[in-house]
Amino acid sequence: MKMIYQTRNTKKGLFDLSITKTIIVIVVVVVMILVLSSWGPVGSLTGNILSPVFKTGNFFYDNFGQIPKYFSDKNKILEENSNLLNQIENGRIDKINYESVKYENDKLRQDLKLKPIGDFLTTTIIAKPPQVPLDSLFLDIGTNDGVSVGDLVFAGERILIGKIVKVSGNKATAALNSFAGVISYGYIDRTLEPLEIKGNGGGGMETNVPIDFDIKIGDKIMIGGSFNSTIAVVGAIEEDRSSGFKNILMSLSVDISKINTVFIYHLNA
User: What is the CATH topology of the domain spanning 120-265?
Assistant: First the structure.
């Protein structure tokens, strides 16, 4: 018996053909776009049509390309901030150390270099104006250390600033040469002319002399005796020609606000 077979067509070949055709069409379109884009007006039109696509691609490329740089710059800034903070902290510590060393040096300079030669007692100023009355000092020394009323108070070598006026077992009060009403007798270092000086308070002193008296701003007023020390400096001269006199204004030769140590000389030592 003769048998007849019917062949069955499958869609697999058609499907493969469709994929192949699609790829070919895409390639042809791309080639056409490239060719047209290089030809004058058509190229311009093609560029305008595809411009949004190109711009979108460029946008993502530019922005996503910056991501590694963004994190790199951020890390660099954080590192620089950390270094700056460390430098600031180190600077603060160095300043504290400097102030501490400066204070100790000032103390040593006052105690050693400025201490007058001789049998002097060194003491610390506990209080000064405005904590105590003007032109006075409260000192950390007293009769237990051999201090008596009338002892001389020095701020350094040949700088006499006052006398002890009150004393207890371990404390003493000094009145400065500028204390209101205090009378001192000295002479001009430049001319050796004698002067009587009266304290005005507030660190000031004055005297009246004839208008032709030889005295100048900056002249040092000295006090005689064993130490031959400075007690004042001329700061201003006010002439009154109608009276024939001039008023001489003076001040202490040191700034009391800037000293913390003084030296006591016991007159009966």
Answer: Thrombin, subunit H (2.40.10)
